[in-house]
Specification:
Elements: H1 18-24, E1 28-29, E2 31-35, E3 41-45, E4 48-51, E5 57-63, H2 67-75, E6 77-82, H3 88-95, E7 110-113, E8 116-119, E9 125-136, E10 139-150, E11 158-161, E12 164-167
Antiparallel strand pairs: 1-11, 2-3, 2-6, 4-5, 5-10, 6-9, 7-8, 9-10, 11-12
């Protein structure tokens, strides 16, 4: 895993991809997806949907080169974890924007679950069984059936808007 060297905001506004600019105007919760046991992988993802139904499902868009994709394909399971404000550093580590000597899981405590590592302190999560991974635009869509979930208090979620972490509370 390497730290991203490109800065998407270094390009002048008039030359930026309008689709990316519009996507940046959608305030989204910051989540971390994890998978794997012997070789755990994780990724900060803001493009996540929770879909009601019988069974309930989740869908997430991730980059095709993400280690997480390999771990999900191998185990057929993954966790979606919703972050609270104050977890910006963790989000940056899992996004590859901040170094974590020894790997991203060195910087956090986790609990082992059948879906992958659960970050300590995360109260809102869904354990999912993989249904499919398919291309969608320049990314991959990971769809999973929610097998178990936990909904805890979340008064101050971590939100991503226009390239920055934000808080809903003043």
């Amino acid at each position: 895993m390497s730290i991203h060297s490109e800065d998407p905001f270094a390009v002048p506004v008039e030359q930026r991809d309008p689709v990316r600019r519009l996507r940046g105007r959608l305030a989204t919760p910051v989540t971390i997806l994890t998978a794997g046991e012997t070789r755990p992988a994780g990724l900060t993802v803001s493009s996540v949907l929770i879909v009601e139904g019988d069974p309930p499902r989740t869908a997430a868009l991730v980059g095709a080169g993400a280690d997480l994709v390999d771990a999900v394909e191998e185990t057929k399971r993954f966790l979606v974890q919703v972050l609270e404000a104050g977890n910006e550093t963790v989000a940056d580590v899992f996004a590859g924007r901040r170094p974590s000597p020894g790997g991203m899981f060195r910087s956090v405590e986790t609990q082992s679950t059948q879906w992958g590592p659960l970050l300590d302190g995360v109260e809102n999560w869904a354990g999912c069984c993989l249904e499919e991974i398919r291309p969608l635009g320049d990314q991959l869509l990971i769809v999973g059936e929610i097998e178990d979930l936990h909904v805890g208090e979340l008064d101050d979620p971590l939100v991503y808007f226009r390239g920055m972490y934000r808080r809903l509370r003043p």
